Records
---
Amino acid sequence: MRRFLRLLPVVPSVLLLLLFLLAPVAWSFYASFTDAALSGRAAKDPQWVGAENYVRMFSDDSFPLAAWLTVVFVAASAVLGQNVLGLLVALLMTRSRRAMASWVGTAVVAAWVLPEIVAAFAAYAYFNREGTLNQVVGAFGGVGPDWLYSFPLVAIVLANTWRGTAFSMLVYRAALADVPRDIAEAALMDGARGWQRLAFITLPLIRSSIATNLMLITLQTLAVFTLIWVMTAGGPANASTTLPVLAYQEAFKFGDIGYGTAVASVLILLGMVFGAVYVRLLREQRP
Amino acid sequence: MTTKAKLGADIALTVIGICFAAPLLWLLLAAVDPQAGYQTKVPLAPSIENFSAVMTPELLFQPLANSFLLSAGTAVVNVLAAVLAAYPLSRYQSRFNKPFMYTVLFGTSLPVTAIMVPVYGLFVQLQFLDSMAATIFFMATTTLPMAIWMTKNFMDSVPLELEEAAWVDGASTMAALRSIVLPLMRQGLGVVFIFVFIQAWGNFFVPFILLLSTDKQPAAVSIFSFFGQHGAIAYGQLAAFSILYSVPVLVLYALVSRGMGNSFALSGAMKG
């Protein structure tokens, strides 16, 4: 009884998590097997339709396309863009003047701290036909395309890289600060060149940070909605519709909650897989 | 480090820094340019016209007040629930602690945008739609796993001996928590509060789905409607609006990072 009473303060948190996190997830899986809708007869009394929504997912063109776009978006903007650029900036900072490192750090972090809707407006203006990017292209004598219309995927990948690199940079700065100096210096004595030191000494030393960072930015990027919604709204013609955008459109634009929750359930499952790997990684680091 | 390598690093960083600052430069210049377009250019006749145009009660002040209510409410719920939950997890050994903490950690990884469709369905069923309080509790829950995780780590670093002394003097557990533990970890609590506040302040998607009436919507949503209605004409006003809305979180972030080192909040969240 005493032991039970001790755990009493945990109850409010558990209730919140059950009601607002677990219940929606459970409801999502349930509703994905029904024809639930925003309005009409099916809104009041949704019918069980079995796996119909999931069958439709794979016969429809929009789901496989959205799944593929999501993979490309995550791989290009998170795993490649944010991760590599973040590591590069962190490494360069260890070698540059302090004032320089702090100036660049501020610029990178600013894009990340701004409210997402403001960052999305700034990116929208930047990639606009008359925007800053095409001014730069023009200054070199070229004529830039309408990025948001002709290359929407490129635009959202670059925008998300710009927006999220700060997180990886902060993780890697903290990790590099923990790398013992004398190890790097001993390697320098042995005549190891810069990239050899990086590949065989620095990177292996921070590998747990790399793994954790990759998991976290993959999860964050999987959930990106506002940036894409403001910049392209998923268009033109689904060319930049990732899974969160598709789930939103099906549920709220077309009123098909059943199909929308089916798409959402796939996303939730994906998140769970990455989340499980992430928890495992952290457990191994802390015996 | 040779001077040449140092110079190379400085040049590379400068290029990267300019690339990151470029999209923000437009925001700053367009805000003071009444004739702003999507181009980045120095205004011919800079003025604060754009700012005075958006500084009206219904356009700016009401939405900002809503943002504040939403964010402060979310942060208060988070800190209260997280402190209560963290206390037994930090102070008593139990075989539930580890599984609970890992479940919480797992909860941090759920993609929130993915659960918005089911949450909308749930809110319709419970008649929570367009309720500020329900939205606050939902937003608090999405950041709660991270808040519990951070709070427990901060609490772990407060030594147990001080509390034991208070217990000997006859203080109850909750009294010891309030008078000994919380004051000692107030910096950490500040970090958790600001961390949650910044996230809630910038959140667009959740209030966009759950709050329907204009007089309840926070700035993130009202700025989006403004962009939809006037964005194609009033670029300068949009930029001015964006800046006014962003200033509070920039200040709060500067406060946290200056007081405690850039990666402090992050390491509190990531390390055990």
---
Amino acid sequence: MDIKLLSTLNSERAARRATVLITELGSGEQRLVKEADLAGDEMAEALDNQLRSGKSGTVEVDGKAWFLTVQAPPPRIIVTGAVHISQALAPMAKLLDLDVTVIDPRTAFATQERFPDVTLLAEWPEEALQSVPFDGYTAFVALTHDPKIDDPALQAALRSSCFYIGALGSRKTHGKRLERLAAAGFGEADVKRIHAPIGLDIGAVSPAEIALAILGEIVQALRGPRRKPV
Amino acid sequence: MISTDTDILATAEAWAKAGRGVALATVVETWGSAPRPVGSHLVIDGEGNFLGSVSGGCVEGAVVAEAGDVIAEGKPRTLEFGVADETAWQVGLSCGGRIKVYVEPVRA
């Protein structure tokens, strides 16, 4: 691989833009296609299919085998609420290679001491989301229980292509949340994207168990189930 | 922390820019219960330092050794590993899967 190609690939990744690296395995001939240039490419259809599946693989075009390395941006989690569950979620997410950003304007909660090694934004969501905008490779988790903080972020998430949206709260809390979202103009299809009650139903009780249930659900949304029922 | 693709490809770039001989290995095909998915990377330098993985640790040694030749020759090659391979007892995949690994030089 040419170092220039590798450089471009890495800088696109850093900017959270997808690329596909095309390699002819026989000759080693190689080129890189950016997400933005994909539509106009001669292999557009094959590239698009591969990118949408998020998986690298070999395709046959014009009798040649081309290996397509899909470089989708790394998935990440944005959380509102520098709370007990987020404290457990952050280190667990790190083991899963999921970057975590915690947003909470309450400076008593959002302290680096409580959240070592985590991107922590002690700002209101409207402001914080300017520097970490939602995209299709982002999961959003609302954990504050406070509509003043959760709702603006939740609305922004619903307007985005986030691959996962989850909100903490009992059915009653979620019912009230749905009323507020309906009043704000969100339809049924929109609010159906919200996972609530949040997390896989593993009977989680402690903050760490709830964090585990949430992360399990996020991984499921990212990868999809694979085993067939027996 | 466990190295991600981001770390591996950034490392490949940094090593090459620092003047080290570098090869990049990529899993291009798998059959059966292969431990790492297609697209997984391993970066290797001329001294045999490496980061990432193309299997659960089963064939990395062999890939690193081949990478030395790839760096020296400057030409890519494709390697296959699996239970049917004659070297299976030394470097085969104990899980019973088979993998194909493309190893290419990174040219500065």
